[in-house]
Amino acid sequence: MGPLMFTVRDTPQDSTGFTPFELLYGYQVHTPMTLLKRLWTGDNEDPEVKTSYQYVVDLKQRVEETCELARTKLAKVQTCNQKYYNRKARERKLNVGDSVLLLLPTVRNKLTLARRGPYKVVGVVGEVDYRIQISPDKVKTYHINMSKRYFYRDNDTASLIANKSQNNMAQNKDSVSVEQAASVACVLEDEDRGRSGSKRC
Questions:
Q1: 19, 86, 190, 191: which has the highest count of C-beta atoms within 10 A?
Q2: Do 116 and 104 touch, CB atoms closer than 8 A?
Q3: Among 74, 60, 63, residue whose Cα is nearest residue 17
Q4: Are 87 and 134 in contact (CB under 8 A)?
Q5: Are residues 53 and 41 in contact, defined by beta-carbon separation less than 8 angstroms?
Q6: What residues does each domain of the chain span?
Q7: Structure pTM?
Q8: What is the pLDDT of residues 82-139, one digit of tens each?
Q9: Mean local confidence (pLDDT), 7-29
């Protein structure tokens, strides 16, 4: 676990452009590969002679500059990610008096959600929150993502669907009765051979 965490802390992040170690301590960590590279190339930096006070001041300034650059890079990455995440998002609005279905936990399992309603919208809170009347004496605030617009059928369409369903039920009932009658009429008595018996179709 130690070598793995060391590798993660020494890897530049895409969101900030710096390593976590550099953001925390203000300088890059001296890894074995870095030391080996300096030995092979002969690029040894001469240590600067500084007082403790001057070292702390320089370190503080370096950390502040690094964090400022990281915040700028992080803001750009967040804007890009937000644009990518919301590429299919659509703005939805509800009006007072609209009917909605709410995504609420079920009675048997609180972790299972189901659409319930319809309920009435009685108020607007901000841009994405709405006051919805759950019962005659209970009003609660819900996010628009928890609600879905509910549309009632007009009377002509509702009556047409009701008549069609009744006709289908009547046809199914008649067909069942005909099949039962046909199965009963298929039993015949055989009296020609002098014994009682039956023959089935």
A1: 19
A2: yes
A3: 74
A4: no
A5: no
A6: 2-85, 99-150, 155-200
A7: 0.42
A8: 888 888 878 888 888 899 999 888 888 888 888 888 899 999 998 889 999 988 889 9
A9: 78
Cα torsion 130, 134, 135, 138: sign: negative
Return the sign of the alpha-carbon dihedral for residues 11, 15, 17, 18: negative
Q: What is the Cα–Cα distance from 91 to 145, expressed in whole angstroms? A: 11
User: What are the structure tokens assigned to 145, written together?
Assistant: 């993502």
User: pLDDT for 54-95, tens place per residue?
Assistant: 777 887 888 888 888 888 888 888 888 888 888 887 888 888
Radius of gyration (C-alpha) of the chain in whole angstroms: 39
DSSP collapsed to 3 states, the chain: CHHHHHHHHCCCCCCCCCCHHHHHHCCCCCCHHHHHHHHHHCCCCCCCCCCHHHHHHHHHHHHHHHHHHHHHHHHHHHHHHHHHHCCCCCCCCCCCCCEEEEEEECCCCCCCEEEEEEEEEEEEECCCEEEEEEECCEEEEEEHHHEEEECCCCHHHHHHHHHHHHHHHHHHHHHHHHHHHHHHCCEEECCCCCCCCEEEC
**CA 190: distance to chain centroid?**
72
Structure-token pair, residue 67: 């964090």
Predicted confidence (pLDDT) per residue in 20-44, tens digit: 888 777 777 777 777 777 778 776 6
Residue 100 contacts residue 148 (beta carbons within 8 Å):
yes
Is 174's pLDDT higher than 70? no
